[in-house]
Amino acid sequence: MNTPDRPATHSPLHHRERTASARPGGQRASAFRSMHHGEMLILPNAWDAMSARVFEDAGCRAVATTSAGVSWSLGYPDGERVPWSEFLAATRRMARCLSVPLTVDCESGFSSTPAELGERVREIIGAGAAGINLEDSQDHRTHTLLPLESAVERVEAARIAADREGVPIVVNARTDFYLQAASGRPVSFTDVIQRCRAYLAVGADCVYPIGLADIHLIRQLTAELRAPVNITGRPGSPTLPELRTAGVARVSTAVGPALLTAGVLMDAIVRLKETGSCEHFASPFTYPRMQQMFAGLTGDAPSEGNE
Length: 307
Description:
Elements: H1 26-34, E1 41-43, E2 45-46, H2 49-57, E3 63-65, H3 67-73, H4 84-97, E4 102-105, H5 114-126, E5 131-135, H6 148-165, E6 170-175, H7 177-180, H8 189-201, E7 206-209, H9 215-225, E8 230-232, H10 240-245, E9 250-252, H11 256-275, H12 287-298
Parallel strand pairs: 1-9, 2-3, 3-4, 4-5, 5-6, 6-7, 8-9
């Protein structure tokens, strides 16, 4: 990926010179930034400490969160309905359990002003985030986009707040144009490019046109932006080899794994009731294996129990 031939308030991720401070999180943030070069990053989205640990144990180089999964796991619907204090605590738990970088889906930032957003970014960095997702819509039902100027101000506020903390988190600016398309609204590719370029110009390190699945448009987007692009991997999406060839920097799974887990649980309990057999709960994970994954984080010896 090459640097766009355009003036920018902030240069793209791989040319921005930031030195990670001695503050906790600086090294993980720097490591996460480097993952946006070379081999395409596969980024699974966790919703609690257990799912995060499973993804790391599977060999993932970094872990993301899914706002929907986190909200549901805490007993709230998606859409910034979860209290910020609970969202922050959940982030802290996941970050504590990982030895790889954690990037956090912050939805629209849990804030109404750029200044408030900056404070949220400071707090999420303190909770252990190496990166954030920031959406440019604030209505989860209609996905109505914020005015471009307002959305740009919020991306810039996030970047400034991170810089002040001295932790070079990756700001992944999400644009919701293609979520609007689901309701029949036409999408202008020119407008998508304009938004992405505007976000990159004020400090976004990666852009995320969520819902975009047309491999030809994805290829065109990466060619025109020449900056890191995040694409969602879900049923119906292009394959990883196709996305790699198209120049995509990272592929995230979004809410897919959380929904898959819910489906597996539902299927297992329904089959138990129908057949009377507990064989449907067979799993590659055992109690000792899961205990070992967490005991190593505290220095405790794993329990030999089975409950």
